[in-house]
């Protein structure tokens, strides 16, 4: 029972982050499942089965809040589904001993990307409105879908930063479109795993626990996408993923330093870097807000209103001298 409750809470927290940041449900949930001993293919299958329900709920919620660009959903989601099916088949044919460190290495790389990206860089908004081409979205979907299935997550960490970096789509629509298109990816990955391994190793009670937590969080996350400081949240989530998967790799046959002082020193150093990254992100977010650039750090807001407009202009009008009438 404690495990079921923990999974439900993880599903809730992961969907809250994923729905407001556009990433991290899969990598967060898969990291926990690996940590408690689930084999990689079963962990990824469990997460993707739960995601069929959570991504559907998330997509509907984002649609209701006007956060979805349906052209982007189709152009990135269909190739994403193809890549996910291929990735699921590939992972299912690896042995458990070989797959676990490989999957943790992929998750570690995604975590590092999240940590570095959101700690050091803001989000571009100066190119919004320019079209996103198929020649960009199709390969992006294929790669993100393959990584998502093999890593137990990765659709958001690959797709969301790529679309945000393009600067061509409003941040809240990037998050909403990636979350909505993930429904197609989750179905394809789940089918790939079920065809390859059947239900072997999949605990459907765990699937249900992750699903319930995600369903509770989905509507709230779609609303929070307009409010959440994505820079801070991205640094926090990235650090958790890096720390947990570094531990798995250190204890694998590749490295073999588990339960030694070396492991403690390495994990301690990662924890210090993580704390420093969050501190840096908080300060950068506050500086951006003070400078009137809140959108650089907050995923969901539109471009900051330039000084001298709107309320500022009205305030100036109140103190502007009126020429005397003749």
TrEMBL record:
Top-level division of the source organism's lineage: Bacteria
InterPro entries, alphabetized: TM_pro_TauE-like, TSUP/Inactive_protease-like
Keyword Nucleus: no
Membrane topology of the entry: Multi-pass membrane protein
Cellular location(s): Cell membrane; Membrane
Pfam families: TauE (PF01925)
Assigned keywords, A-Z: Cell membrane, Membrane, Transmembrane, Transmembrane helix
Record-annotated membrane-spanning stretches: 72-90, 102-120, 181-198, 204-225, 232-250, 265-285
Chain segments carrying region Disordered: 301-326
Main subcellular localisation: membrane
Family: Belongs to the 4-toluene sulfonate uptake permease (TSUP) (TC 2.A.102) family.
Record's protein name: Probable membrane transporter protein
Provenance organism: Cellulomonas dongxiuzhuiae
């Amino acid at each position: 029972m404690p495990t079921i409750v923990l999974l439900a809470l993880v599903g809730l927290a992961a969907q809250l982050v994923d729905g407001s940041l556009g990433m991290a449900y899969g990598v967060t949930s898969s990291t926990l499942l690996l940590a408690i001993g689930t084999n990689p293919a079963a962990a990824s299958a469990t997460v993707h089965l739960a995601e069929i329900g959570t991504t559907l709920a998330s997509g509907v919620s984002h649609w209701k809040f006007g956060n979805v660009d349906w052209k982007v959903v189709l152009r990135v989601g269909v190739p994403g589904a193809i890549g996910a099916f291929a990735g699921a088949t590939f992972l299912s044919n690896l042995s458990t001993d070989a797959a676990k460190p490989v999957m943790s290495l992929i998750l570690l790389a995604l975590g590092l990307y999240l940590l570095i990206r959101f700690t050091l860089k803001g989000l571009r908004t100066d190119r919004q409105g320019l079209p996103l081409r198929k020649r960009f979205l199709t390969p992006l979907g294929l790669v993100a879908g393959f990584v998502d299935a093999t890593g137990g997550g990765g659709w958001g960490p690959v797709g969301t930063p790529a679309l945000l970096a393009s600067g061509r789509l409003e941040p809240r629509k990037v998050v909403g479109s990636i979350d909505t298109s993930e429904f197609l990816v989750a179905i394809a990955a789940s089918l790939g795993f079920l065809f390859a391994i059947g239900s072997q190793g999949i605990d459907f009670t765990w699937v249900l626990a992750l699903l319930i937590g995600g369903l509770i969080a989905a509507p709230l996350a779609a609303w929070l996408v307009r409010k959440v400081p994505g820079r801070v949240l991205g640094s926090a989530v990235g650090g958790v993923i890096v720390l947990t998967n570094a531990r798995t790799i250190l204890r694998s046959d590749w490295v073999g330093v588990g339960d030694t002082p070396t492991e403690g020193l390495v994990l301690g150093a990662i924890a210090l870097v993580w704390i420093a990254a969050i501190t840096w992100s908080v300060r950068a977010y506050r500086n951006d807000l003070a400078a009137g650039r809140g959108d650089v750090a907050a995923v969901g807001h539109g471009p900051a209103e330039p000084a001298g407009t709107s309320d500022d202009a009205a305030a100036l009008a109140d103190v502007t001298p009126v020429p005397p009438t003749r």
